[in-house]
Amino acid sequence: SRRLELNEGHAIHSLYRPGTVLTDNYWDGFLVLPFAVRPRPPRSIAILGTAGGTVARAYAHYFPSTRIDAVDIDPRLFEIGHRYFGLERRPQLREIAEDARPFLRRTTARYDSIFVDAYRQPYIPFYLVTREFFKLIRDHLNPGGTVIVNVGHLPGSDSLEKVVSATLHARSEERRVGKECKSR
Which residues of 113-124 are buried (b: 16+ CB within 10 A; e: fewer)? Predict the structure, then answer.
């Protein structure tokens, strides 16, 4: 198998196992979690934080009709994905070398699922854990769409998960209050 380690080796960003697209790790969860709210595969997904393409590769394999926008800030990671991690160029896969937040500001695309896989210690982009960022994500979801967030952390520390959860909760509270005000 091959592992893509970045950030001084604090985290594994992609995994390749010859003969399968499954990893027996968290990346496989992105394949099934959208089914928690819909009985069919997503028609379109955005992967914010693609690295070597582990999730994009699996989606292209299992759900060939799903349109995939794979977004990563570093274009070299797509090259690495093609060379070492089995990422293939396919018609439904669009590789976008751009930071996630400017990408969401620029695109008009809407998605059934948006995956956020850009939080890896020790470098967490602070602007990707704000209410404004999650509002951008919500604005790009189709009705009934899902946001699936992988929050990597250092062993023994759950503070990042707590911060992201609190931000998401605050964002959903803002939406609830806004709806109540509109209905009055």
Answer: bbbbbbbbbeeb
Q: Which two tokens stand for residue 143?
A: 């009705």
User: Mind listing the pLDDT tens digit for each residue in 136-149?
Assistant: 999 999 999 999 98
Structural tokens at position 89: 């160029």
Residue 52 dihedral angles phi and psi, to the nearest 5°: -85, 0
Q: Strands 44-48 and 111-119: what pairing? A: parallel
Residues taking part in catalysis: 117
Burial of 13 (0-12, 13-18, 19+ CB in 10 A): buried
DSSP state of 173: H
- Residues sharing a CB contact under 8 Å with residue 155, sequence separation 6 or more, in sequence order: none
The amino acid present at 88, given as its one-letter code, is: E
